[in-house]
Amino acid sequence: MAMATMRLTKRAVDGLAPSNRELRVYDADLSGFGVRVMPSGFKSWFVEYRPKGGGRLVPTKRMTLGETTKLTADEARNAARDVLATVRLGGDPAGERRKSREMPTLAQLLEQFLADEVEPKRKRTTASTYRHYVRNIIVPAIGTTKANALTKADVNRLHRKVAP
User: How far apart are alpha carbons 161 and 155 in whole angstroms?
Assistant: First the structure.
């Protein structure tokens, strides 16, 4: 695939026509920033980088910033600058995003807790009480929260809601 470069502006991006293969056009001003045009005509901004200060031996990572209809060229360029600054400071934004998506929800962790710790180690009535609280109170209130996003404020809010 040939690397096309141009100054990415709204007019330039609107003029990009879809073809039978994915088309990537890189910005002439900011290295690693570009727009991707899919055969369906869908267009999105992206940024490419090599994590951890790696050279050519480190694989390139690509991170989608958003649709061209939702972000202007300048907004996407600024977001790409932020991502590249994080990379220069030793971060890996795409890797962090992937880990965040893979993080289990509180409901998943609580079901595992019930199966591994409560059912085999507690009396039947105690296990029943745990199940009731987990499935009828905790999970409906905060079960969809990712485990790494749970805050003390979330727990305090739940306690206030449950308290007599």
Answer: 10
> Which tens digits make up the pLDDT trace of 103-155?
888 888 888 888 988 888 889 999 898 888 888 888 888 888 888 888 899 88
**CA distances, 28 to each of 8, 9, 144 (Å):** 7, 11, 42
The Cα–Cα gap between 139 and 148 comes to: 16
- DSSP secondary structure string, 57-101? TSPPEEEEEEETTTS-HHHHHHHHHHHHHHHHTT--HHHHHHHHH
pTM of the model: 0.64
**Under a CB-based contact definition with an 8 Å cutoff, are residues 142 and 162 in contact?**
no
Element (H, E) at 131: helix 124-133
Q: Cα separations (Å) of 4 from 46, 49, 81?
A: 14, 17, 20
